[in-house]
Design goal:
The chain has helices at 63-75, 127-130, 171-186, 243-250, 261-277, 319-324, 327-339, 343-355, 417-432, and strands at 2-5, 11-14, 18-20, 30-32, 45-52, 84-87, 93-96, 102-109, 146-153, 158-165, 234-241, 284-292, 310-311, 314-318, 366-371, 389-392, 399-405, 408-416. By secondary structure, the chain is of the alpha+beta class.
């Protein structure tokens, strides 16, 4: 048992981590990941968190015990999660289905849920208390593929924080797995998940022979031209965008402009972020939109597939254009990034991974956004009702996530402190100040993704 005192204002008592194994015997076999799964850009651990209020109808039920039991039952069907990754030729990742188990931590916090306030939002300042980094557990190869910590609060509420090896699953697949756990928790007579898990990772593996058929700006490498501020220690902050803020951003577009909330918000954040970084106007910058390919015609991925079906096509521009051209210009670039996505684009990415040795995405001048609002994190119910908040626990220096919160969207941003100050000022200008309608809305016509 370990006790830690948060630098915020409460104490968490944790039991020793334990491995939860499948409740039933499972096959011991090697299973290949797809060539979309094992991209270098997905070889990291992604933290998620959900907070649940107390429920008088669940009095006497221990969330730790029932979730741990439901997890073991779900692992009987999703048994690759209980295995360990190994690497084969050409850096190919495979799951050794050993049934070694998923790491599970039981904890108690000396605080009530309603005392956490904004700490429940992404960028959570108490995440280290609610998601224990078990020593030796955070690697990609030979480590547990999933770590969960269930923390009880004094009020009867609790938090489920987890860390997932992203090569195993995307957000849709993770929610599918959590929903299976919830079904076993709520239904004592449940014998199988309502959605049967499908592996079939060969569906998104490279063709024979592999061939790159699309232009992939997200993998073009460039020189590091960031300013000195960009090398400072990054900080995280969550930003909330309700109807009022989205309406204010739309006021910077021409009347009757056709754009989704995602496109408008992404264009706004990219512009504010680029301005805040104070880059040379001639520097190349990118916006990469993580796209879920499950509904793409021609991809034919079956219902229940829980692997990664995401890629991140990019649009490119010069920093000076993103900063100074009308907002409609960046909106059109965001649309262009999204609309590259086809089944052929997916297959081209898989082939590129094999041909080029699974390269990392472009880091310099890139900004990634991932929309998690429709994945269902906020609907997973273990019997205590829907969570107060469910979704990403934070962001990364290059990656931000969109999550539902109350009547709007919460987006965590990670930037060096001096850059964050400038970012907040830029955001205030576009979301709060009256817009000067005399500014010319018309952006230059975008005829190509290539920079002249």
């Amino acid at each position: 048992m370990s006790t830690s005192s948060s630098s915020i204002w409460f104490t968490v008592t944790r039991q020793e981590p334990r491995l939860v194994v499948p409740a039933e015997p499972t096959p011991h076999e090697l299973k290949q990941l797809s060539d979309i799964d094992d991209q270098e850009g997905l070889r990291f651990q992604v933290p998620m968190i959900t907070f649940y209020k107390s429920n008088p109808f669940m009095e006497g039920e221990d969330p730790v015990s029932v979730i741990r039991e439901g997890l073991a039952k779900a692992l009987s069907f999703y048994y690759p999660f209980a295995g360990r990754l190994v690497e084969g030729p050409n850096r190919k990742l495979l799951v050794d289905c050993t049934s070694d188990g998923v790491l599970f931590v039981e904890a108690d916090a000396e605080v009530e849920l309603n005392q956490l306030g904004d700490a429940i939002l992404p960028g959570c300042p108490v995440l280290e208390e609610l998601l224990h980094d078990v020593p030796g557990s955070d690697g990609i190869l030979g480590c547990p593929l999933l770590l969960l910590q269930v923390t009880r609060f004094r009020c009867g509420g609790f938090a489920i924080a987890l860390r997932l090896n992203h090569t195993m699953s995307d957000g849709v697949g993770l929610v599918q797995f959590l929903s299976a756990i919830a079904e076993f928790v709520q239904g004592k007579e449940v014998t199988a998940p309502s959605v049967s898990p499908v592996w079939q990772r060969e569906l998104l593996s490279a063709r024979h022979p592999p061939r790159i058929t699309c232009l992939h700006h997200e993998f073009e490498q460039g020189l590091d031209t960031n300013n000195d501020d960009a090398n400072s220690t990054p900080i995280q902050k969550p930003f909330f965008f309700g109807p009022k803020e989205i309406r204010a951003i739309r006021n910077h577009l021409p009347p009757h402009a056709s754009a989704t909330t995602f496109e408008v918000l992404t264009a706004c954040l990219w512009r504010c972020r680029t301005r805040a970084l104070a880059l040379d106007p001639n520097n190349t910058v990118r916006i990469s939109c993580l796209v879920n390919g499950r509904s793409l015609p021609g991809l034919n991925v079956p219902h229940g597939y829980y692997g990664n079906i995401i890629t991140y096509p990019a649009a490119v521009s010069k920093a000076g254009k993103v900063c100074s051209f009308p907002l409609e210009y960046t909106v059109e670039l965001v649309k262009m990034a999204k609309h590259q996505m086809t089944a052929e684009y997916f297959r081209s990415v898989a082939d590129l991974m094999v041909i080029k040795g699974r390269p990392l995405y472009t880091v310099v001048g890139n900004f990634f956004v991932s929309d998690l609002r429709r994945l269902g994190f906020e609907t997973v119910d273990f019997g205590w009702g829907k969570p107060v908040y469910g979704g990403s626990a934070g962001s990364f220096p290059l990656i931000s996530f969109y999550m539902n919160f109350k009547d709007g969207i919460v987006v965590p941003i990670c930037l060096p402190e001096p850059v964050m100050e400038r970012f907040e000022e830029e955001l205030k200008k576009i979301t709060k100040e009256p817009f000067d309608g005399s500014v010319d809305h018309r952006p230059p016509k975008i005829t190509s993704m290539l920079i002249n």
